[in-house]
Amino acid sequence: MNASPGRPLRTVVAGTNFGRFYIDAVREHPDFELAGILAKGSSQSRQTAERLGVPCCTGVDELPDDIDVACVVVPSAVMGGSGTELSQALLHRGVHVLQEHPLHPDELSDTLRIARKRKLQYRVNTHYVHVEPVRVFLEAARRLRARQRVLYVDAASPVHVLAPLIDILGRALGGLRPWHLGDVAAVGEEVLAASDGRTPVRTLHGALAGAPLTLRVQNQIHPGDRDNHALFWHRVAIATEGGVLTLADTHGPVLWHPRMHSPRDDGHRLVFRSGPGAQWLELPTHSVVGDPAQDPHSFDGVFSDLWPSAVTDALSALRDAIGEGADVLRTAQHDLTVFHVWRDLMARLGPPELIRPPAPTPLAVTDLTVSGTGGSGERRGRGPVQGGAPAGAEGDVPGAGYTQPAEFFDLGAREHTDRTGPAVVASLAGIDPKAGPLLDIGAGSGLVTRRIAAAYPDCRIVAAEPSPGMRAILTSRLAEDPGIGERVTVLPDAANDLVLPDRICGAVACGMLGHLDPDRRRALLRDLADRLAPGAPLVVELMGLYTPVSMPATRLRQATLGGLRYEWWMAGEPAGEELMCLETTWRVFDGTRLVREVRDVYHWHTVTLERIAEEAGLALEAPPPPHGAAVPHLGVLRGAERPSVTR
Q1: pTM
Q2: pLDDT (tens digit, 9 = 90+) per residue, 196-213?
Q3: Span 404-544+608-638 CATH architecture
């Protein structure tokens, strides 16, 4: 069916995972109107539809008669999903379709024939060709090809977005034919032995559009988390006689490296200064293509800006095709070639290796340039770190900063939790155990967890702690009381790895949010806020470091156990705009003689309670009296009637 002139195209979005970007794009596009959600009927999909004021349909037959366009953001048959079947049903219903990649060529051909017979538009969206830095790269490549012949192409991609890479290469080279792919290069036994059997990236050679190609693919997938664990994203370098054009990453930057070539003088000596016949020696060794003054996008900006904008471009192309009444088979020839190449490539690579690595610890550039860290493994002015990890290394892995000091933790923390524990328990007053479990994220050794469990005997608790040392104490502490042990589930997950229940009666995050970088912190807070039962509390405790400061070595606690005395020290230095490098040291004395010293170094992202509340979209309250003055760094976040968030 076709829209009436002058009114937006009424659009449904099928799928609310990656489909959230389509929902945002449709709502922002002046020529489209979100008219419904098509999903299996999960609570998240229903809540999304309710929040947006549109119906949530569970079948094509439930759609209103006036739907013009459907965005199918559901895995296709080649990926084990029903996306192609759904797209074909929508076309039979008379609806134009934009379907998310990838597709088997046979799926694509069958669906195109249906669209042509029904005189409808059908497009496959490989998405990443529309992302702004990729568009800049493609335009620069077009201009480069107009001036010089492509001599060589080097490209890399993770396997789950390999089809979009083929599309990017085809557009950058002005086509894909003639093309040929060789077999994957064998990995020798010597390499396997030297790398402990780890070969995440496989290499093959071939040709696209007649240009020699070297392709590297990370052929690995986490079966429970397919969208994560890529070591890199799309990378493409196109070499010509005049230089190399590089897409450093899907999200930029785009770089130009002019060819380094020094002419020779009459004595056949290389010329190293610019002048007649060597004026190109004045060229910069590299330049950013596009707007060099534009700040790099944060990952938060990628999800809130770049990706919805890319979907907007795909929607605009579909709108134009609908208006023109284009022949879908004629316009889809490039797509058909893309997926033929992709099918050949996947067959040569073989099934992806299934991996289940822990969540990675992304590093900021400051982790590589902090002035207080030397390349020899020593921290200047303090000597070598003994018994700990250098900043930005093991100490920033979730839980690693507490593994070695775990044996001392209760000696230092018990006095503190004797004050904060009652405040946390009081702040949870009124929780409804029937609404779902309570989450204790970063439960540590369980000093507060056990207090909560004792105070709320009808409540099920999920206690997450990634440090093995701390988790051992936590498990033992909970197991001491059978009544508590049967209600508390202990998980080894870091905060951003937790699979959150659909609904929770409350959450506690004491002393752990500073371990998360701002993007991961915001993601966690949004997820928690989205799942809190109406009026349920999120209790947060911060360290009290609201901005980076220089903190000299300070003794925080001392305790005696048997014949030994224990001291807990902390020092810190600014390591960025909202980042500190902290060093904790435990010293054990026999009388006045130092017998042991354990150090740990990690990063801490400074933040205020007000900022935490803003990021979560919840209201900030003080702990109930009389606890407020005793625990100034503890806050209660609550959203009484807050609707769920999809982004």
Answers
A1: 0.61
A2: 777 899 999 999 999 999
A3: 3-Layer(aba) Sandwich (3.40)
